[in-house]
Every structure is written in structure tokens, then in C-alpha cells.
Automatic annotation (TrEMBL):
Highest taxon above the source species: Bacteria
Alphabetized CDD domains for the sequence: CdiI_EcoliA0-like
Name of protein: Uncharacterized protein
Phylogenetic placement of the source organism: Bacteria, Bacillati, Bacillota, Bacilli, Bacillales
PROSITE patterns the UniProt entry points to: LECTIN_LEGUME_BETA (PS00307)
Amino acid sequence: MEQEGSRKWRLEQLLRRQKSKQKISYGLLFDECIEALGVDVVILSEETSERIRNELTIAYSFTPWGRIDWNYTVNKRNLRLEIDLMPALNSMNMDTGFPIYVIWGGDYPVLQTNLQKVLSALDDVLAVDFDTFVYCPSNYVIEFYHEGEITLGIERSDNFEYPRKHTKND
């Protein structure tokens, strides 16, 4: 009888160990996005993802339906095409070399990568979930709304400091 309980305990331990080895899957579209972004993309832990999401919601006001409330952002631009993003950032002397975070509206982990990689794999990034945010802390946020709107926000209404490119005039 004791041997049977011991065997059951060992089987439960093996099952727990096996489950812990299994990779968490977020679906085919998420996997394709990771593959399209290539190397140097970091899938953040659940805790770190939550911290980054909280930073975004503190940095920018949100509507009850999950969009950024652009009425509280001093400098924003509505863009027609994603190809307009880099010229818009460059015209504002924004440094696009900082790491960025990709945040989706769903329960996906946050990704850390760079803006150029996101723009080169944008179709795969946007396919993961309806609404997507590209967030560069203390710098800018790009909201890709599911109805096709692209909005670039440069600073909040409380005028926090954000990094800019140094120009010859500085």
C-alpha cells in the first residue's frame, strides 16, 4: 500500500516536471511574428511585461475602450502609412536607436527589440492582435489601431524630458 502511494507520488512529480518543461504557446501568429523579427528580440517575462504595460498607462492616458487618449498628448501626428513613421520621427529629431517595446491589447508577453526590426516585419507584428503599441519609454509611442489608424505621440501633457538626437545647433 505504501509502495503504491510512493509510486503515485513519483508519477505526479514526473508529470509536474514534464509540464514545466513545456513551452508556453501564444499561437501561430505570435510565433510567426517572433520568427519575422529575427534575432535580438526578447520575450519579456509576465512580471516585466506587466511593468512595461503599467509604465505605458502612466505615461499616456487611455480611454475606457483601450485607446490612448490623444487629447492629453501635446505633440501627436496621425499618419496615413507606416512608411511615414521614420520620416516623422526624424523630422522631430527623435532618436530611433533606443530599444522599443511591442505591446498588444491581448494577453501576450511584451517584446523588446528595435524600431527598424518592427517596421521591417510590421505585417507580422500587427497580425498578432487587434491593437498594437510600439513604446519607447520617455521618447514616443506609436498606436496601431485596429481600424487602420496610426498615431505617433511624442510627449505627454506634463512635458516630461525625453531623449532627442543632438544636432549641430545644440
